[in-house]
Design goal:
Elements (H helix, E strand, L loop, with lengths): L1 E3 L10 E3 L8 H9 L1 E2 L8 E2 L7 H6 L3 H16 L7
Antiparallel strand pairs: 1-2, 3-4
């Protein structure tokens, strides 16, 4: 879905945004949410958490990554290219 720099000039980390739509069973979801993801050698502890898609709550958040992803997703949906690679 694209990428961006969270603070141009203040941060050189590029954040990549991805979109994936899956149909999974409750058991598969529990297995994903229960697992700790990331590279152990890099001391990463990434947890996946499913949240309800609520545009108002997203826009009220103070998380710039979430708001950027929301904008990118909404733009993708409105463009009709939801199932294509950008």
């Amino acid at each position: 879905m694209g990428s961006y720099y969270p603070s141009v000039g203040g941060c050189d980390e590029e954040i990549f945004m991805y979109y994936c739509q899956l149909t999974i069973s409750p058991e598969e979801l529990l297995a994903i949410e229960s697992k700790i993801h990331g590279k152990e050698g890099e001391h990463e502890r990434i947890k996946v958490k499913l949240i309800e898609y609520d545009p108002l709550q997203i826009l009220k958040s103070k998380d710039s990554k979430l708001i950027s992803l929301f904008y990118a997703y909404e733009t993708l949906v409105r463009s009709g290219k939801k199932h294509s690679h950008l």
